[in-house]
Amino acid sequence: MTHPGKGPDGAADTVRGGPRRRRVRAQVGGVPLPLLVPALIGLAFLIVPLIALLVRAPWRSLPELLTSAEVWQALRLSLVCATAATAVSMVVGVPLAWLLARVEFPGRGLVRALVTLPLVLPPVVGGVALLMALGRNGIVGRSLDSWFGVTLPFTTAGVVVAEAFVALPFLVITVEGTLRAADPRYEEAAATLGASRFTAFRRVTLPLIAPGIAAGAVLAWARALGEFGATITFAGNFPGRTQTMPLAVYLALQSDPEAAIALSLVLLAVSVAVLAGLRDRWMTTG
Amino acid sequence: MTRTARRTGRPTQVAALGVGALLALSACSSSDDSSSADSDSSASASASDKVSGTVTVFAAASLKESFTALGKEFEKAHPGTKVTFSFGGSDSLAASITGGAPADVFASASPKTMAIVTDAGDASGTPTTFVRNQLEIATLPGNPDKIASLEDLTGSSLKVVLCDRTVPCGAAAQKALDASKLKLTPVSYEQDVKAALTKVELKEADAAVVYKTDVHAAGDKVEGVEFPESADAVNDYPIVRLKDARNAEAAEAFIALVRSAEGQKVLTGAGFLQP
Question: 3-state class of A161 per DSSP?
Answer without folding.
Answer: helix
